[in-house]
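Weekly sync, protein design subgroup
Attendees: M.S., D.O., the rotation student, P.L. (late)

Item 1: inverse folding check
M.S. brought a backbone from last month's batch and wanted to see whether the design step gives back something sensible before we order anything. D.O. pointed out we never logged the input encoding, so this time it goes straight into the notes. Structure tokens as presented (527 positions):
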């Protein structure tokens, strides 16, 4: 029964990934170029991107061959290039927050400058979900209060923190690849990361909830894998201090801490954690004590983060802000956005959500419009909406949010702004093409995953003798990618830059899968 359950879970996770790939295969013109959203940029044809993906696979093969003899040199070179890109982005393309993220940063500046008597913007009475990231940035920025003389100083500080967290998360991601799949997989992953300039240069400069939540999620997953990898029995003992495995306890506490911070900053991380614990409970059920202890630690730190947040809110006069229910958006409004205009927000939705002042009237009206829309879509229309949303996230027409984040810091300096904009016009199309190449190459790897997970007639796989551990970790990463993707596709609105919550896990899946295939091919050539 357990074996069948494992096979079903592996099959479902693989099927979801293949369905996403299937949507992407039909997301644009095969021969001619494709215009991105609002015709802002010109994307390549599917055939051209596929050709570039084939070149990236060739570069990966070359990286593996060179790594057999010069593994450390290749690793050092790739890291130097990645760090260089992260630093140079702060100079030549200093992206500024927009919309919600700018409201958050402006509020943080108010809290830092006027503590202990700041004023909270009424924006947070309408969108209290952005209070946690505001509190978190306040904790960080308050340490540098005497250096933050202007709003631009604060934006620069948060951009630097974002870039540092991004690099730390990539280090953790590379450690996962190296620990489970070897140094070749790590180096190929670094190559894939190098081919995602929109992620390295743009996304992580924006001080917002997903920007800061994602690194903590990745680091937490690294420690979680350390808890369960290469462990065949439940050796957790906490009753006898002499027999306590302190290394194991450190991994459990670090995983719980980082995962709880990620959850605190971005509550939709809960879907990734549910996917992770579902896989752990199925494949590592004999280690139920570790799973239970980890759940307790996550809950403990989550409770602690919430209490510290509430204490900070009291100290910063948040509770003087009038929280009027009539200003709140009912949950149904998010579901309306998820389906009304193909998953995108827009003026038509705003006309529905803003029609009534009373919360109860607004909720009833939104429910009515939501049910009407679902009924008009029908089963086929809903499936087509899911397909379109998947293509917004992963399709070849994506611009990865580059038109969304197109403003820069140092707004008062017109000369700098002109230079930033000229550099933006020159770099952005190239950044989009390169990032799409890495994204599509990783998505193509989904075709190969079933061959890696399932035994052939000779009862062998492309994995080594520790195939159970490797397959399980691969499924765990796949569960994170699938669960976050399904959250946006089924329940939430979508925008092109929402891909970044899934992108590191997608790159890891792609790098690992292609490495295993290429290693097997290279070894056969040598025989």
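Designed sequence read out in the meeting:
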């Amino acid at each position: 029964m357990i074996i069948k359950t494992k096979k079903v879970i592996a099959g479902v996770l693989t099927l979801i990934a293949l369905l996403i790939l299937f949507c992407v295969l039909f997301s644009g013109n095969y021969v001619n170029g494709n215009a991105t959203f609002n015709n802002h940029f010109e994307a390549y044809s599917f055939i051209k991107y596929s050709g570039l993906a084939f070149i990236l696979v060739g570069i990966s093969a070359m990286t593996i061959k060179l790594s057999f003899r010069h593994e450390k040199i290749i690793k050092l070179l790739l890291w130097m290039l990645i760090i260089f890109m992260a630093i140079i982005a702060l100079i030549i393309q200093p992206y500024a927050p927009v919309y919600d993220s700018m409201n958050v940063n402006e509020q943080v500046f108010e809290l830092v400058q006027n503590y202990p008597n700041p004023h909270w913007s009424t924006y947070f009475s309408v969108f209290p979900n952005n209070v946690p990231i505001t509190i978190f940035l306040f904790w960080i920025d308050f340490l540098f209060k005497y250096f933050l003389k202007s709003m631009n100083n604060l934006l620069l500080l948060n951009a630097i923190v974002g870039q540092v967290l991004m690099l730390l998360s990539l280090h953790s991601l590379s450690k996962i690849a190296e620990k489970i799949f070897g140094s070749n997989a790590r180096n190929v992953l670094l190559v894939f990361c190098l081919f995602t300039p929109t992620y390295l240069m743009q996304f992580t400069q924006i001080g917002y909830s997903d920007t800061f939540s994602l690194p903590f999620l990745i680091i937490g997953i690294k420690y979680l894998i350390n808890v369960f990898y290469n462990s065949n029995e439940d050796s957790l003992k906490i009753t006898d201090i002499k027999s306590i495995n302190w290394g194991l306890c450190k991994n459990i506490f670090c995983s719980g801490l980082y995962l709880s911070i990620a959850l605190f900053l971005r509550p939709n991380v809960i879907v990734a954690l549910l996917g992770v614990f579902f896989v752990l409970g199925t494949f590592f059920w004999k280690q139920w004590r570790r799973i239970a202890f980890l759940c307790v630690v996550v809950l403990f730190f989550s409770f602690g983060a919430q209490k510290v947040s509430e204490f900070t809110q009291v100290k910063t006069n948040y509770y003087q802000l009038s929280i009027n229910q009539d200003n709140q958006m009912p949950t149904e409004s998010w579901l309306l956005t998820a389906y009304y205009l193909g998953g995108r927000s827009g003026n038509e939705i705003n006309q529905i959500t803003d029609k009534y002042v009373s919360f109860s009237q607004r909720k009833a009206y939104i429910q009515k419009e939501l049910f009407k829309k679902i009924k008009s879509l029908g089963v086929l229309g809903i499936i087509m909406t899911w397909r379109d949303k998947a293509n917004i996230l992963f399709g070849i027409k994506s611009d990865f949010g580059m038109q969304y984040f197109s403003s820069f810091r140092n707004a008062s300096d017109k000369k700098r702004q002109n230079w930033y904009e000229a550099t933006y016009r020159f770099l952005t199309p190239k950044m989009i093409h390169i990032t799409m190449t890495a994204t599509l190459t990783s998505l193509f790897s989904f075709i190969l995953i079933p061959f890696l997970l399932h035994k052939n007639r000779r009862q062998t796989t492309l994995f080594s003798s520790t195939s159970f551990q490797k397959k399980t970790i691969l499924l765990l990463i796949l569960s994170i990618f699938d669960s976050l993707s399904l959250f946006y596709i089924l329940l939430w609105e979508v925008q092109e830059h929402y891909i970044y919550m899934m992108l590191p896990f997608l790159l890891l899946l792609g790098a690992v899968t292609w490495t295993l295939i290429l290693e097997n091919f290279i070894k056969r050539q040598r025989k």
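Discussion: Residues 459-466 have pLDDT under 50 and may be disordered. The first helix runs from residue 2 to 25.
Action: P.L. to compare against the previous round before Friday.
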